[in-house]
Amino acid sequence: MDITERGHLLTEQANPDSHNLDQLSSLELVDLFNREDAKVIAAIAQVRRELARAIDRTAEALRQGGRLFYVGAGTSGRLGVLDAAECPPTFCTSPEQVQGIIAGGTAALVRSSEELEDRAEDGAEAIAHHQITNQDVVVGITAGGTTPYVHGALKAARQRGATTIFIACVSAEQVSVQVDVDIRLLVGPEVLAGSTRLKAGTVTKLALNILSTGTMVQLGKVYGNRMVDVAVTNKKLHDRAIRILCDLTGLSREEAGYLLEHSGRQVKLALLMHWTGLEKEAGDRLLAEHQGNLRKALNSVNQGNHLP
Length: 308
What we know:
Elements (H helix, E strand, L loop, with lengths): L25 H21 L1 H16 L4 E5 L1 H18 L6 E5 L17 H10 L7 E5 L6 H12 L3 E6 L12 E4 L14 H20 L16 H15 L3 H10 L4 H10 L3 H10 L4 H7 L8
Parallel strand pairs: 1-2, 1-3, 3-4, 4-5
Helix pairs in contact: 1-6, 2-6, 3-6, 4-5, 7-8, 7-9, 9-10
């Protein structure tokens, strides 16, 4: 495809429902956006099976010691970096396990460098720089589907045997790609024609939320709906850790605080110690035996059937 001729792409078309955008009152404009944004949820529902496959493939790779990389340019790249940056505090992952790669590097996070997306060789170079292997997962994100930087990265990742996932807001008929999981988030033309930071950006954020959270759930970093691997690195997260312990154990805040400190500020380990009576070292070993999965560790000592 000639990337200089993209007017036919779904993301570049004019939205007939916003043809008079510049004539709307502020309230009418808000209502229009609200109606259009409702299409985002429907688009996610249409790719539920693809998202589930992406979660399964990613969880299996990370379980085997692999890493997850998001690759994109502009808004798509920033969304990938954002999702990756949230994984360490939320799930206590290492910064290396989930990473965002954006065309132009960190400078492109705060200043537009759109011209850098046109170099497929730069995408391939980024894959080489991060020493991607067949254990890793590479997610290429491009709203319009044609970004050379992303395609270059995906091609290089496939050559190295990595699992590849494609996220775009155009159909496969408009832009085809060879990947392991192909996710098409079809939200239709933007309210402001071509401005993919709008619906396309919103639906991409939702898809990445689902992918990373679903993966971490499968990796045992969640108990019930609690983030039991939360990194206790500030007052807010310390308070959240205490509340999780109080809610799940019935302990007072003072008791929960003591338990948290005794566990080395590890909520998951604190819960295991409380429910089994194990000391920290034994609890650590038991969790390691079950790949960090709290519920499996509890069930192995016949405690799980009596817990929240």
